[in-house]
Each structure stands twice: as C-alpha cells, then as structure tokens.
Amino acid sequence: MRLEKCWFCSSTIYPGHGIQFVRNDAKIFRFCRSKCHKNFKMKRNPRKVKWTKAYRRLHGKDMTQDSTFELERKRNQPERYDRNMAEQTLKAIPLITKIRHHRLQKHIADRHKPGKKKELERDNKELEQDINMLPKKVISKAEPLKMKVQVVPPQTQENLMEE
Amino acid sequence: MGSHGNNLFGAVSSSVEAVTRPSHCDAISQQIRTFIQMRTNLKVVDNSGAKRVMCIQAKSGKYGAKLGDTIVGSVKEAQPRGKVKKGDVVYGVVVRAAMKKGRSDGSEVQFDDNAIVLVNNKGELIGTRVFGPVPHELRKKKHLKILALAEHIV
C-alpha cells in the first residue's frame, strides 16, 4: 500500500479514493477526487489554478525549502527492515508533521506581516482624516483618547435661515 | 468509492455515460466511458495486421465487455500484408478500456482509449508484439503471453 499524491492538487490519496488515469504513453495520473480529475480533463494547468499546491509553491505562498520535507522524499530503494529504525520512524512522523505545520504557519504569517502593517497605517490615517464622519455621540466618547476632533456647531439650521 | 456509473446498471439497452450537456470543454477529451458492446470500435494494438475492429459480441458480461474481457469482432480496417484481412471475424482481449475498472485495493483505473489484442478462439495470440500499456488485470484472466510481450504493465 502506498500513499500517492494527487497529480493536480498534490494532496495525499488514501486507499479506496480517487481514480488513476493511464495515458497511452504509459504515464499514470492519479487524482484524489473527481474535482481534480475534471479539472485535468478540462486541460487546466495546476500551476495556474489557485487552490492547488503547485500554484501555491510556485507563487511563494507556501514554504518550498525546508528540512522537514526530507522525510517524505521518495526513495526508490526499499529499506531493509530493521525493527529499531521502524520504531524510530514511526515516532518521528507525527513530530515532523507537527514541526512542518508550525513552520508553514509561520511562513504564511510572515508573508502577511507587511500587509497587516499597511492595513493598520491605513486605518489610522482614515481615522485621522475622516473622524468628523462619525456621529457626535461617538466622537464625544472618544475625546479622552486625545484625538483631533472637530466640534460641530449645534445651531446650523438657524444659521442657514439667517443667511 | 467507485461510483461505477449509478445509472449504468439501470439502463437496459444502451448505457452511455457520456456528458450530454454541451460545454466548451466537451469535444476535447470526453471519451464515452461505457462497456464495450456491439458496434464499439476498438483499436488493435498488436502487429497482427488489423487496425480497427468492431465488436460483434462481448463473450462475457450482461452489459458488455470490460477491461480484460474477450470479445468477438469484425475487422474493419487492416494493413495490406497482415495475418488478418478486412472482414475477418476475430476474437480479441480488451487491454485498454476507457471505462474505469475497480481494483481490489479500492483504486480505479481508466485508460485513454479502447484497445484490443487479437487472439484465436483458444486464447493464443495472433500477433507477436503488443504496443502501449496493459493492465495487470490480465494476469488474473490468464493472458500471461500478453503481459510478457507488453511494453509497460500498469
């Protein structure tokens, strides 16, 4: 039993799932679900389809180079069975997956950092410039925060009528 | 798992699983994926001389032949100097089927086209070479010669 990777989205294909398509040049395409299979039949390039791993890795959205990927590298030579090694590998697998997951999340968070900073700056600027768009009640409550506030004169209508 | 055509076994006469909605992607790569039945054209992938065979009868199966089954066919197109001529009635073993076949490990395989290898009524190959990939379903059906000659076993 071998856990394969979907050709289109690169997710793991567990036994009992998906379809294998064999092309006449003997190249095998494995798909995890019909979504990927149908996209393939539409001749879509996975590197251009946003939700696939291929796209994400290509466009730097996901981590590409890390030592945690070494464990899953395909080795075409079968290892001679050794009980200790098997035990250690089985212990290591969940650890390594956890580490890889954390590193991936960190990679994504780091990617979002400059964007978040810009967003904060934009919000501050908006608050500064457009504070008078807020209703009077909110502004008066916000006074203790020492913001520049434009006090709206209460008799605007009478002023207009005078003019 | 294998949603083996939920309407296929319900249909009596023709069980066409084709995409009937015309879409922009239709004509390109939508092989009609159904059983191999009477009038099905199959490609011949050995060097027996025939090129195209039309199925006359599926030897087994209520709805038609699947991957690994034997069929009786009529040669529709043949190479000028070959072991079979146009119009011959021949037996063939299906080595590639566009309809997906379930395997015991839960996976499903499907090929790009429908292809056969010509055989005589005893099951011996007429040709001496087989082209393209063949599935290992043939091992269970005892077509070991085909597997031995195959370029690639899937």
From TrEMBL, chain A:
**Which Pfam families does this chain map to?**
Ribosomal_L24e
Q: What is its main location?
A: nucleus
GO-annotated molecular function: structural constituent of ribosome
Q: Which residues form the TRASH domain?
A: 6-44
Q: Which residues form a coiled coil?
A: none
Span list, region Disordered: 109-128
Q: To which protein family does this belong?
A: Belongs to the eukaryotic ribosomal protein eL24 family.
Tell me what this protein is called: TRASH domain-containing protein
From TrEMBL, chain B:
A Pfam match: Ribosomal_L14
Gene Ontology CC annotation, any one: mitochondrial large ribosomal subunit
Q: Which domain of life is it from?
A: Eukaryota
UniProt keyword Coiled coil, yes or no: no
Key word Ribonucleoprotein present in the record?
yes
**SUPFAM superfamilies with a match to the protein in the record:** Ribosomal protein L14
Q: Which SMART domains match?
A: Ribosomal_L14
What InterPro entries does its record include?
Answer: Ribosomal_uL14 (IPR000218), Ribosomal_uL14_bac-type (IPR005745), Ribosomal_uL14_CS (IPR019972), Ribosomal_uL14_sf (IPR036853)
Q: Keywords assigned by UniProt?
A: Ribonucleoprotein, Ribosomal protein, RNA-binding, rRNA-binding
Q: Which GO terms describe its biological process?
A: translation
Family statement: Belongs to the universal ribosomal protein uL14 family.
Name recorded for this polypeptide: 50S ribosomal protein L14, chloroplastic
Q: What is the lineage of its organism?
A: Eukaryota, Viridiplantae, Streptophyta, Embryophyta, Tracheophyta
